Amino acid sequence: TYPSAGPGLNNLAVAYFRVLDFKRAAEQGQRAAAVYPNSVNYRTNVALYAMYASDFPTAVAEANKAIAISQFDKAYLPIAIAALASGKYDEARAAYTEMAKVSSRGASIASMGRADVDMYLGRFAAAQEELVRGAASDEAGQQLAPRALKLIALAELAAATGNQAEAQSLAAQALKLSSV
Predict the structure, then answer these.
(1) CB neighbours of residue 54 within 10 Å
(2) Is the pLDDT assigned to residue 5 strictly greater than 90?
(3) What are phi and psi of 172, to 5 degrees?
(4) Least C-beta-crowded within 10 Å: which of 32, 51, 121, 158?
(5) What is the structure's pLDDT at 180?
């Protein structure tokens, strides 16, 4: 009935996203962003949908538009992932560093992202250090779910390096957080 209703278009984009149709999610998201060009949420959503569709040029362009409107932590994720996909690891880390400056949630996501880059590059000790720092920061900020994710990543690192006892201990700590 209302083909230019931004919230309706955005909801349709979310529905496409949830059924993993990222291309159509991006298309509908772009329609919503066209109706509300200064909506940081719509712009960020389009950037994320494009990222999941592996349309990195669109993802980066939309993320930069969102950041120009307002500093929003999740808008840096498509920039980091596009850099990773291009083998530009320092650019990915720089995007995560900018993300960390925006909010405590951004700092938490960025910590996991930097650890992912380190793990991908085989820098397991650096990844472990990043995850330990990030988990401590999450604990101080009472961010339970992000802390649990970091503990799980630490458990995976411990298991991969042959330390099964530590892996089990870290997994148990993460599990305790899920029941809080």
Answers:
(1) 13
(2) no
(3) -65, -40
(4) 121
(5) 61
Alpha carbon 2 to its chain centroid, in Å, reads: 32
Which one-letter amino acid corresponds to residue 150? K
The one-letter amino acid at 146:
P
Model pLDDT for residues 20-38, shown as the tens digit of each residue: 999 999 999 999 999 899 9
- 44: burial class by Cβ within 10 Å (0-12, 13-18, 19+)? buried
pTM, two decimal places: 0.88
Is the confidence at residue 79, as pLDDT, over 70? yes
Alpha helices, DSSP H, located in the chain: 6-18, 22-35, 40-52, 56-69, 76-85, 89-102, 104-120, 124-140, 144-160, 164-178
The rounded mean pLDDT for the chain is 93
Alpha-carbon distance of 26 to 56, in angstroms, equals 12
Determine the pLDDT at residue 4: 73
The sign one gets for the Cα dihedral 115, 118, 122, 127 is negative
- Under 8 Å between Cβ of 83 and 64: no
Tell me how many degrees the CA angle 44-51-26 measures, rounded to the nearest 5.
Answer: 65
Neighbouring C-alpha atoms within 13 Å toward the C-beta of 160? 13
What CA–CA distance (Å, rounded) separates 118 from 112?
A: 10
Predicted confidence at residue 82, as pLDDT, reads 97
